[in-house]
Please model this.
Amino acid sequence: MAEVLVVTSGKGGVGKTTSTAALGAALAQTGQNVVVIDFDVGLRNLDLVMGAERRVVYDLINVVQGDANLNQALIKDKRVDTLSLLPASQTRDKDALTAEGVERVINELKGRFDWIICDSPAGIERGAYFAMRHADLAVIVTNPEVSSVRDSDRIIGLLDSKTEKAERGEHMEKLLLLTRYDPIRAERGDMLKVDDVLEILSIPLLGIIPESPEVLKASNLGSPVTLSNPISAPARAYADAARRLRGETIEMTVPSERKRFLGGLFGRRAA
Amino acid sequence: MSVLKFFSRRTSAPAARERLQLLLAHERAVFGRTDLVAQLKDEILAVIAKHISIDPEKVRITTDTRDTLATLEVDIEIRTPNGGLKMAS
Model:
């Protein structure tokens, strides 16, 4: 049975697309069939972060409107063969999405994949609504920062009222993914701690992704961080989160960079 | 003064935490309780289960808002010896 997951946050720039790519790749590496869908119509970026920007021919809007079929629009990842991307349109606007069209596409994907990961646009408008509409569970990407936490709280409210699952009176599972976390600043008292955010939002924790230059390097290269540098701290944090999504119990830690002596001496390469 | 300031350095995270807690308490009241339906379901089930045998799987609670009218629909299937009696309220 396919699991539909929405990666959402309300606020922009907190790491939704980065997290969608990293979690999608990590899940696919465990042998699961994964499709990541970009719902940010007009401002697509998941293709770029995944390094598939030059392979986009058809997109979600083409499939929703029946101008292309899924086989034509799905882009298979070149590094992990169980990972696919359904890009958003760059030229159309978000009004080109229809409720019926999105539902049909999601249902069709359910027959082909184990995980359907919907990368939500920022904000609380149409695109965000369509991305969360059919979700079985939600990953709320939050930075330890007041405006991000506030927007996450708002999104949690929408997930509990506007999704199909909520309308059926079922519990919508929501998991917190805390990104750009700096344990040293949190310990010093200059950043909200994990427990502060958990207490305020009161949803279970999926993972803590440490602030790291590896995330920018990965997007420079067009590769999910879990593939570009699997031993880096954020990659290990995402890999743990992906295993938790699969139901494994893994101790919650904030990974830190391992100091590699030789790597430090000779391994510096420009990204 | 600067020495005093050094020792009494206030951290900013507690302020963030307090401001958020105050603000969100207010905003949740304005935008409505987030998991109202799920909570209603649990509480309604608990009350009914005290008196009648019900299958938690066979309970549907939905809310709907049309123009100025908001509805709450509760649909509960009750276990009977012959099975199948359905009661809606």
Summary: Residues 13-31 of chain B form the longest helix (19 residues). The longest strand of chain B covers residues 54-66. Helices of chain B lie at 2-7, 13-31, 36-49.
